Amino acid sequence: MNFLIKIFSPTILIISFLLLIYTFYKSEIIWIGDNRNYYKTYYYIFSILICFSIITFFIKDEIKQYLIIFGISLILSLYLFEGYLTFKEQVLKEQVLKEHFLKEQLLKEQLYEKQTGNK
To answer: Is 15 inside any structural domain?
Structure first.
């Protein structure tokens, strides 16, 4: 855990700068500044993240440890929730397809019964 605590602040700072640079690249180079309002929120978020990462250089190792645990827990929870939503969406799609197939079968049976008089 000591290794994680030592690399936590520089890693967060590097990631923050890279995300800010990527946002600038998308906003100003790819979109030629046409979508600045869309990317303004990202500029704010990554600027706050840079400030936060600079502050982490000056906090105690114990607090850094809690931040690492919180960050890992948050990321893991978000991925699990995304997996749940993806699974739930897939199940709903399968149910809709099954219902559609059953309705189609019922219509075919009714049409066959009307045309031939047999079940």
So the answer is: yes
